[in-house]
Write a structure and sequence with these properties.
109 residues, mainly alpha
């Protein structure tokens, strides 16, 4: 489900970015359309989350398993999500995470 969440989250972020006017003033009709896109992507994220939870609950083999996860990958995903807005604001985003840093979390979903 992560494969569905990530593009929806990015699309939603772009919609919110457009709605802020950072890319220039939009006509009222465009603002209405952007608000609709943002609301729809938020609804789609909620549906994907609900489907993931339903799938997990229906899987008799699914057990809560904690696994070590590298912090570098998690931070890289977060940086990718905010990179476009950072560029528009002339900000530089860097990551400095020691590769050996891990934490335990549930994998998947």
């Amino acid at each position: 489900m992560h494969e569905l969440r990530r593009p929806l989250t990015i699309l939603n972020s772009y919609g919110q970015l457009l709605a802020t006017g950072m890319l220039g003033q939009m006509p009222d009709t465009a603002t209405v359309a952007i608000d609709g896109i943002t609301a729809s992507t938020e609804m789609m994220v909620r549906m994907v989350n609900a489907l993931a939870e339903l799938s997990r609950l229906e899987d008799p083999e699914d057990k809560l398993t904690m696994e070590p996860i590298g912090l570098t990958d998690l931070v890289a995903g977060a940086v990718e999500t905010v990179m476009m807005e950072a560029k528009l604001r002339d900000c530089t985003v860097t990551q400095d995470v020691a590769p050996e840093v891990t934490f335990r979390a549930t994998a998947g979903g």
